[in-house]
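Q: DUF3365 domain-containing protein, please. Structure only.
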Amino acid sequence: MRTLLRAALLSLLLPACRPDQIEHLSNTKELAVEAENWQVKRIMPADLLRATRWGGDSLTNTADRELRRILSEKLQAGGVAAALPYCRPMTFPEVESVAKALQGSLSWVSPRPRNPDHQAALTPAELVPTDTTRRVARLSAEEFTYQRPVVLNDALCLRCHGTVGPDIKPADYALIQKQYPQDQATGYKVGDAMGVWRVSLKRPGVAELYTMKTRKIMKKRKPLF
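A: Structure for DUF3365 domain-containing protein:
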């Protein structure tokens, strides 16, 4: 009796499983890639240092770009008097947004600063005249650091940091000295290293950046028609 019942059930199921009635998924490759992206990956110390460099580059490049953009607008609108209060890229919204996403902070220091709060003794190796030099380090299990030179690459900056007379108008330099009596940040020329960017990053932010940067991204398929 059981044998007859099994045979009857099998006869009912077999027509429902014919190959021509099976619906095949069209996005199996995308699903495989997405599944791999969600797998827990072991991040090695070298990977975290690589992500520290990525994060430092992102934060300092954002600061460089926003500083040039805002100072250009202010100088055009009202000269040095209008631009002087805005030479603080760490406080710009775009920079703060990137720093928050990376769980990091940005600062700059110089042996010849305008603001004495940014005074720091730096070695010649740290003040190389190229902003492609990077230094990354892991200070502890949870803290990473990044550093690269701040290089005067835009002649626009000479209006505040060049030589008094040829580049900086005496009246403008009087404004600078009024706000920064201990100013040392003049006499530079294009290509000079003025100091260094310093970035401090936390491990969760570095690990998240590494995970996102190494995710596989599927290329969009071209439509057939």
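A: Brief note, in case it's useful. The CA atoms of residues 76 and 82 lie 9 Å apart.
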